[in-house]
Fold:
Amino acid sequence: MKRVTREEFVLTKCPICGGEEFAFACQAGYGALTSDDSLLKTAPLRHQICTQCGTVVRSFVDNPKKLLKR
Ligand SMILES: [Zn+2]
Structure:
C-alpha cells in the first residue's frame, strides 16, 4: 500500500470557513500519542490548521506503524 505523507495528501479547503491557507503544527512531548499496547511507543501528533478560523482540519502521525504491536 502506498504510504500517504503530509506532502502527498493535504486538504486544500477548510470545510468550515472555506479558507485555503493552512499552517502545520506538531504536538510532541507529553502531548504525543501513546500506543494502547505500550507506554514506550509514542508518535508526535501533527495537525493541519486553517489559518483563517483556527480549525484543525486534519490530525495525523508521520509513522503510524511505530504504534503497532510487535
Ligand atoms: Zn477555516
